[in-house]
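Weekly puzzle thread! Below is a chain. First person to post its structure in token form gets bragging rights.
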Amino acid sequence: MSSDSLDRIYDAALGNGALGGKLVGAGAGGFMLFYAERPVALRKAMTAEGLEEVRFQFDFDGATVIARS
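Winning reply:
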């Protein structure tokens, strides 16, 4: 999937420190996930494109039971 808007955002990301990216999500929305060497420059460029950053962390524990009845 692509569009002129997505291509512009992806090109801006690559020009501002991203080594690569991927469109993720489904249905009524989604995310663009980038890997960046210079995240500050990437954040500024994506903000200029009108995008909002959603921060996340990787979980290295795998599946965990958090409640049991």
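Puzzle host: Confirmed. Bonus trivia for everyone else. Strands lie at 18-24, 31-36.
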